[in-house]
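Usage

Read records sequentially. Each one opens with the input sequence:
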Amino acid sequence: MASRRLALNLAQGLRGRSGGLSVPIRRGLATPHSPALKTQTTTLKNGLTVATQYSPYAQTSTVGMWIDAGSRAETDETNGTAHFLEHLAFKGTSKRTQQQLELEIENMGAHLNAYTSRENTVYFARALNEDVPQCVDILQDILQNSKLEESAIERERDVILRESEEVEKQLEEVVFDHLHATAYQQQPLGRTILGPRENIRDITRTELTNYIKNNYTADRMVLVGAGGVPHEQLVEMADKYFAGLPSKSPESAAYLLSKKKADFIGSDVRIRDDTIPTANIAIAVEGVSWNDPDYFTALVTQAIVGNYDKALGNAPHQGSKLSGIVHKNDLATSYMSFSTSYSDTGLWGIYMVTDNLANVDDLVHFSLREWTRLCGNVTPAEVERAKAQLKASILLSLDGTSAVAEDIGRQIVNTGRRMSPGEIERVIDAITEKDVMEFANKKIWDQDIAISAVGSIEGLFDYARIRADMSRNF
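and closes with the structure output:
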């Protein structure tokens, strides 16, 4: 619509100056035009899904394997195995030594990486289009033929232990790990991704190979391509390299437990450490899953609460009502609203950092008062602002082939299909203030909360007092 309006204004302007378009406007240089890019999917005989978004004019591509298995697929005894495997993937296979693997990637000028989350493990490569077949060959090699040598396991054990120490210094990571642990007590989703230090020290090759056997199966894997790799070409490569993957995961106790619906538990965990000069607090209600009809409504509601950072120049003018209250009264250094989704549940909440330790209770009170306001008093203007911010953030996040591949892989693994950016935009546009208030009444009003707090938190009220603010009448 914006482009049509711009064209109309341009035409009117030309007529106004020349008294009519006597000379037709012609293109100077040829500009290629292609219809809207679409995501194509194919499922192989063994159940492996191949998904691509082909851009005929792209010079590079991202290819990767998205696997429906992360720390949630582990047991208490094997927690940390998925992340450990990610580290070992690039340490040599039965066909390539670590040096050969690194040299091969280096000679292509490609980029090979991996990451682990609570529900997914991802291995991906970025390269020039002509090098995509070689990258797929490398990916299948590290996924199916990793040697997992004892010497490499011992070396990576020390690396991961050091990584664990670094994570423990990042207060935001610590707070969110504790938030999951308290919200999903004694459940797979409550475990950390790295695992406890004793597990990292004790993980053996047997546990690593068992994790691969139990979880790296075709029905839980999606081979994704984005950029200049045609769909048919990637399907051929998938058939060549991944046809031998087992079709289905064995229904082990860990698998069955990982697929059991997670129960949200209202509770709190507090780690008081007065040597930390700030109070770092996360509060969450049970949010929405990836497939929930209210998924985008949750994101719009989160955007209404907004974010705040005192260090930014626009801190007094960040749009949300809560940020105005926080800034005017100097209640926080920063806050971040969030909506984190999983396959069957989610966390919707706010993470706050403050050095105004005498007013921690006020910060929490006004944050929860803003939450309860959403249940009955939302203006069209703030919904439109939130929708505009959300659409911009989603579209800006799809900049580059790796971001597109990530979006395709995440959506198909978690929901079974990919919504196009245009479809997402239409869904967001249709959300009204009534939808926001209905969501808030269902998910926020008088609901149990999970609280995680670390640092100088003496001023944080007890759980019952904070929980009572979830049904405040103005």
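Summary fields computed downstream for this record:
- The first helix runs from residue 2 to 18.
- The chain has 18 helices and twelve strands.
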